[in-house]
Write a structure and sequence with these properties.
Layout lengths: L4 H10 L7 H13 L2 H17 L1 E2 L6 E2 L5 H4 L8 E5 L2 H8 L7 E4 L17 H10 L4 E4 L5 H15 L4 E4 L15 H9 L2 E2 L1
Parallel strand pairs: 3-4, 3-5, 5-6
Antiparallel strand pairs: 1-2, 6-7
Helix pairs in contact: 1-2
């Protein structure tokens, strides 16, 4: 049976979302069709509001409804001299859920991937170095993913930061090799922070 053209367009748009394959996109499209008009209006409205209100914090580059964000504005945080570097806002959220990290964050906005044409100028490495030079940071925790891109990024950043005489650590045991931080549970991330190792 041929799928109506308007449905094909909807499925095609849903497939653009990360980790959504053709079957899942089709399922989601038909689920949306079954939703009530008020639910669809709420969904559309929430997406439009988020797009209009959410902005990038000019200190850590996390998404927030204020600038600077709530974390960067929090003067009660205990570890002002520790900075945790992550790839994405989702990674920041995952780490912020653990109870044993009280420092600040920096979102790179991706990872180095020479095969995909993503170099140091394509992520926020220069902005990270500028922040480190202008802030009183004694330790940088590199919390990039443990896949090949994350490891390349961690090694590259560590070499630069060490020249600034700042201690560089990497998340320790607990995170599986090749895994993504945003999918790890709080206990795993907590153990990884406690077991971080100097690079």
């Amino acid at each position: 049976m041929n799928i109506p053209q308007i449905m094909e367009r909807m499925i095609k748009m849903i497939k653009k979302l990360p980790a959504v394959g053709p079957k899942m996109a089709e399922r989601l499209a038909y689920h949306i069709l079954k939703m009530s008009q008020s639910e669809i209006d709420d969904l559309i409205n929430s997406m439009q509001m988020a797009r209009q209100i959410m902005k990038c914090c000019n200190i850590c580059y996390n998404f927030s409804d204020q600038n600077p964000c709530q974390i960067c504005s929090d003067i009660t945080r205990k570890k002002h001299s520790i900075l945790c570097v992550v790839e994405t806002p989702q990674d920041l959220i995952a780490i912020s859920k653990v109870k044993n990290y009280h420092g600040f964050y920096f979102v790179l906005g991706g990872a180095l991937s020479p095969l995909d044409g993503i170099g140091p100028e394509d992520i926020r490495i220069n902005k990270l170095i500028k922040r480190l030079k202008n802030a009183n940071i004694s330790e940088v925790i590199i919390a990039t993913d443990t896949d090949s891109k994350g490891e390349v990024t961690a090694t590259y950043i560590a070499k630069i930061i060490k020249k600034l005489n700042i201690k560089v650590t990497r998340l320790g045991y607990g995170l599986p090799v090749g895994g993504n931080i945003e999918y790890a549970d709080e206990v795993t991330i907590s153990r990884a922070i406690v077991g971080r190792q100097e690079m």
